[in-house]
Design goal:
208 residues; alpha/beta; Rossmann fold; 9 strands
């Protein structure tokens, strides 16, 4: 039996997407293992959640540090854990170019909009202000630009007339919890590849 692929999770807050990934692994829906969970914030609830689950959870504080120095320490920890894929789960920091080059096409993120619409902070608020009728979430590879890399998977969420930022965010988050594990499974399976900036399924001939 092949060894399970290893995930490195980076988080800054409550870590609900991390917990959804961990639950998917526990339930057998995602064939992987979480090798390390790293937070840049000591007060991140997701870090404590990882410790309660018995996972390798590390605090690497970022406050007051040069970004490149902090990123280098995180990269070292991820490489020591021999991770195959880095998953950003509410990690509230832009990664330096050196970090991205350390894991080429092996860093993924989830964003609460249908990119390229509404990148950056407060995507749900942006969607409501713009008056869109459909929004959702996007799992994408991370490149050197904010919320920009090739799209792996998207799920849609209708915007209701009665929605406010809270209700819309809650329904998007439900889809995020499903989408992230699905996308991670696709990437780890080797069934997809990036052509130009488009993520496509490999043909059987290409996969051989």
């Amino acid at each position: 039996m092949a060894a399970l692929k290893k995930l490195g999770i980076l988080l800054s807050g409550r870590g609900s997407n991390f917990e959804a990934i961990a639950d998917s692994i526990k339930a057998g829906r995602l064939q992987a293992e979480i090798a390390i969970v790293i937070s840049n914030r000591a007060d991140a609830p997701g870090l404590e959640s990882a410790r309660r689950r018995g996972l390798n959870a590390q605090l690497i504080p970022s406050k007051g540090r040069v970004r490149e120095e902090h990123d280098a320490e995180v990269v070292t920890a991820l490489k020591q854990a021999q991770v195959d894929l880095v998953c950003l789960a509410g990690y509230m920091r832009l990664l330096s170019p050196d970090f991205i080059r350390a894991f080429p096409s092996r860093i993924v993120n989830i964003h609460p909009s249908l990119l390229p619409a509404f990148p950056g902070m407060d995507a749900q608020k942006q969607a409501l202000a713009y008056g869109v009728k459909v929004t959702g979430c996007t799992v994408h590879f991370v490149d050197e630009h904010l919320d920009h890399g090739p799209i792996i998977l998207q799920k849609t969420v209708p915007v209701l007339d009665s929605d406010d930022e809270h209700t819309l965010s809650a329904r998007i988050l439900q889809q995020e919890h499903t989408a992230y594990s699905e996308a991670i499974g696709l990437v780890l399976s080797g069934e997809v590849e990036v052509q130009d900036r488009v993520v496509r399924k490999r043909t059987h001939a290409e996969g051989k």
